[in-house]
Give the backbone structure.
Amino acid sequence: NAGVTQTPKFQVLKTGQSMTLQCAQDMNHEYMSWYRQDPGMGLRLIHYSVGAGITDQGEVPNGYNVSRSTTEDFPLRLLSAAPSQTSVYFCASSYSGQVPGSGNTIYFGEGSWLTVV
Amino acid sequence: AQTVTQSQPEMSVQEAETVTLSCTYDTSENNYYLFWYKQPPSRQMILVIRQEAYKQQNATENRFSVNFQKAAKSFSLKISDSQLGDTAMYFCAFMKRWGNTPLVFGKGTRLSVIA
């Protein structure tokens, strides 16, 4: 997963606390996205961005905010954490318009384990 | 909206045997891509194989091949000569061909290869 860095890797939050999951890539990728992975649910898209200043909602955006002020960074903010947000979060990036395979790659971060108690 | 369904939450196979993982999808698009991703215990996401919907020929990558049935919206993955290292979660995924849209994943199939 070289090139996409997620921090922190592990975090425990109390209900109602806020925090930001950081995602950074150094490959000049326009396209970045956040997924959450829950047991039996696969990866579900939270938010994505096709370039600096442009973001859009995915399948499960409620409770999360994003911004894209630079090409490199795409932070995910939890404004008031809830136990339902306990999950593993993955950030991904790629060149805009490129499809995985045939030399094109979506790069995934190593995941951030979040527990809300 | 596109949906991807993997109806087998868990499967197991003996080492060296062949196993097939099922995937169906729903879309009104005509041009799209389908993928199988492998996620080992490390949680890394590894692209196994991809299929272009406009190609009738089924994709193959070494021991991995697909059976793509566009009319039936079915996209199964066959793993031949299964190896212990194939033990992982496998996700089927969909992407439109145009429009910078993200991957849509199925819920995954946990495959265990037994020695």
Q: What stands out?
A: Chain A is about 0% helix and 50% strand.
